[in-house]
Structure formats: structure tokens, C-alpha cells
């Protein structure tokens, strides 16, 4: 999105960073990078870096941006296996193209590569900060796996799970860019909070789009969260307004048209609006977190990114 001018360089560097002597493993790792993506996370790292250092990006911050995308991509490979997704970014998923075994190894390999490059940043604080994200991913997946089709799952638990699965990486990478710039602790924490709230808003909107988006827009079939029993904010809000949705969830969408019926019921309830309002609150919190940053074009873009998160619905 905001990284488009340098996306060719990023893509080239990503492929160089995942090079391996095993051709199948390399092909699997390269598969998603070739498919592209929004490059949302590395864009944030670069914007934070420029906002803190008079439009200058350090070499270590450029590397952190690339590491962030590798970690994100590794998590997608594993997510697709767990959710049994057939497509990602408009192309076949790694486990569909190769095999589940190769996909697991490819995801592990990408995590390992990101850890190696992270260690070479030679900044212990940043290493500790970003390394925790990988354990957060596992925590998020475990939490999600324990509550599938569970209508007793609360909104607070949903937010915690969303932090581990999405917001943790965005928060840590924004803070990591600040740490590499040597800023004081208060500014570092503010940028962490910016990334945290932005990440939560981003996930909530993604969960709404899973119910209202098209195949062309999503790059996969809508309703995948429902099908897998992953109850997201718009679903949880809708359950309290329409008992029929709970009934469909309880029988795990066992009948042919259950998924489409559930999507229609959710779209006609107030759950979508409530989820959007919650996302808007997190966007406002993200904007407040960077309010004290010195005025610059990069700060304006960070604000624009936050506002764009909600605008993706339109």
C-alpha cells in the first residue's frame, strides 16, 4: 500500500533472505512472496523510522521491515494449514501446492531465517521484543483452537486472541523501529501502543470483511472463519441478537446452506456495526498514541494508515 515505490526492492530482498539449498523448500518459501500482498507491516516499520529521524531510514530498520514480513508470511503458511484454506492472496496455498509436510517445514524455515537475521541486528532489546512475537503466534493459535464453535467465548477473550495472532507483531515491529533509533522509553511505548491498537482494528475489520467481502477482494472464499468455527467480533455481537445464529453454530453448520444462512443473518443483525464501532475506538487510540510525535509527512502517513483501516470497508 504505502510501500509501493520500494516494493520491488523489498520483494527481491525477501527472496534473497529465504534462499536455501533445498529447491522444494525454497519454492515453497518463495511461493507467497511471489504472490505479493499489501506489505502493510514493513510499510509501518519504514514510516515509523522516517517519522523519528527526519525522513532517514537506518539500514537496520530496513532489515527489520524485511524480517517483519518474513515472520508474518511464516505465520500465514501455518495458519493456512490449520484453517485448511485453499487460496491465499489469490493463489493456491503452500500446503495445497506442495504438501502439508512441506508447508510446515517451510513455515518453520521462515521463522528460523527471521530469527537469524534478527540476531544479526545486534540489538538485544529488539531481539527480545520481536522474538516474543513468535511465541505469541503459538499462544493465539492454541487459544483459538480451544474455543472453536464456542458461543460462550467473550469479546475480551477475542481481543486477547487477536492481539496474539495479529497485533503483537505490528506493535513489536513499530516499537522495534523506535528502539533502533535510540528514542526514549516513553516514545517507544507510544509507538508500541500505536501498533497494538492499529493491529487490533485491522484484525476486527478483516473479520468483518470475511463476512461481507467478495472472493475477488479477499483472495479466498468469504465465511472461512464461520466454517472453521472461529467466532470473531461481528459473529459474537450478532449471536446476542439472534438465537438462530447460535443454533447454526451449535450444529457446526452441518447442513448444506448453513454457512450462507449464517452470513445473511449476521449481515442483517447489528453485529457488523458494533464490530466496526469497536474497530473505530482502536483507531482513535492508535491516533492518540502518536499525537505527540513531531509533525512530518511520515506522521501524516501513519495517521492515514490508521484511518484507512476503517475505510477498507467502503
UniProtKB/TrEMBL annotation:
Coiled coil segments of this chain: none
Q: Which GO terms describe its biological process?
A: isoprenoid biosynthetic process; quinone biosynthetic process
Q: Which InterPro entries match?
A: Isoprenoid_synthase_dom_sf, Polyprenyl_synt, Polyprenyl_synt_CS
Please give the Pfam families that the UniProt record associates with this protein: polyprenyl_synt
Q: Which top-rank group of organisms is this from? A: Eukaryota
Please give the PROSITE patterns that the UniProt record associates with this protein.
POLYPRENYL_SYNTHASE_1 (PS00723), POLYPRENYL_SYNTHASE_2 (PS00444)
Required cofactor(s): Mg(2+)
Taxonomic classification, please?
A: Eukaryota, Rhodophyta, Bangiophyceae, Porphyridiales, Porphyridiaceae
MF annotations from Gene Ontology: metal ion binding; prenyltransferase activity
Q: Does Signal count among this protein's keywords?
A: no
Instruction: Show the SUPFAM superfamilies listed in the entry.
Output: Terpenoid synthases (SSF48576)
What PANTHER family would the database entry show? ALL TRANS-POLYPRENYL-DIPHOSPHATE SYNTHASE PDSS1, GERANYLGERANYL PYROPHOSPHATE SYNTHASE
Provide the family line. Belongs to the FPP/GGPP synthase family.
Please indicate if the UniProt record lists Lipoprotein as a keyword: no
Q: Which UniProt keywords apply?
A: Isoprene biosynthesis, Magnesium, Metal-binding, Plastid, Transferase
Spell out the protein name for this chain. Prenyl transferase
Native source organism of the sequence: Porphyridium sordidum
Amino acid at each position: 500500500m504505502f510501500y509501493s515505490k520500494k516494493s520491488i526492492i523489498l520483494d527481491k530482498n525477501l527472496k534473497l533472505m529465504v534462499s536455501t539449498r533445498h529447491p522444494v523448500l525454497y519454492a515453497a518459501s518463495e511461493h507467497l512472496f511471489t504472490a505479493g500482498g499489501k506489505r502493510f507491516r514493513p510499510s509501518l516499520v519504514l514510516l515509523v523510522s522516517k517519522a523519528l529521524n527526519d525522513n532517514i531510514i537506518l539500514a537496520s530498520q530496513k532489515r527489520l521491515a524485511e524480517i517483519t514480513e518474513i515472520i508474518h508470511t511464516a505465520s500465514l503458511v501455518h495458519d493456512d494449514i490449520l484453517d485448511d484454506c485453499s487460496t491465499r492472496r489469490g493463489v493456491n496455498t503452500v500446503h495445497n501446492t506442495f504438501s502439508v509436510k512441506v508447508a510446515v517445514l517451510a513455515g518453520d524455515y521462515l521463522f528460523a531465517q527471521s530469527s537469524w537475521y534478527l540476531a544479526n541486528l545486534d540489538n538485544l532489546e529488539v531481539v527480545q521484543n520481536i522474538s516474543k512475537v513468535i511465541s505469541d503466534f503459538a499462544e493465539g493459535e492454541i487459544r483459538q483452537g480451544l474455543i472453536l464453535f464456542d458461543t460462550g467465548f467473550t469479546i475480551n477473550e477475542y481481543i486477547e486472541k487477536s492481539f496474539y495472532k495479529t497485533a503483537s507483531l505490528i506493535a513489536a515491529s513499530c516499537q522495534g523501529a523506535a528502539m533502533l533509533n535510540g528514542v526514549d522509553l516513553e516514545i517507544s511505548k507510544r509507538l508500541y501502543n500505536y501498533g497494538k491498537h492499529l493491529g487490533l482494528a485491522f484484525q476486527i475489520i478483516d473479520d468483518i470483511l470475511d463476512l461481507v467481502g467478495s472472493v475477488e477482494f479477499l483472495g479466498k472464499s468469504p465465511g472461512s472463519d464461520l466454517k472453521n468455527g472461529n467466532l470473531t467480533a461481528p459473529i459474537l455481537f450478532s449471536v446476542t441478537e439472534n438465537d438462530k445464529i447460535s443454533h447454526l453454530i451449535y450444529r457446526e453448520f452441518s447442513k448444506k446452506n448453513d454457512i450462507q444462512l449464517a452470513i445473511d443473518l449476521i449481515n442483517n443483525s447489528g453485529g457488523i456495526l458494533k464490530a466496526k464501532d469497536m474497530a473505530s475506538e482502536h483507531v482513535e487510540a492508535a491516533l492518540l498514541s502518536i499525537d505527540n510525535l513531531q509533525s512530518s509527512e511520515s506522521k501524516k502517513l501513519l495517521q492515514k494508515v490508521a484511518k484507512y483501516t476503517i475505510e477498507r470497508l467502503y
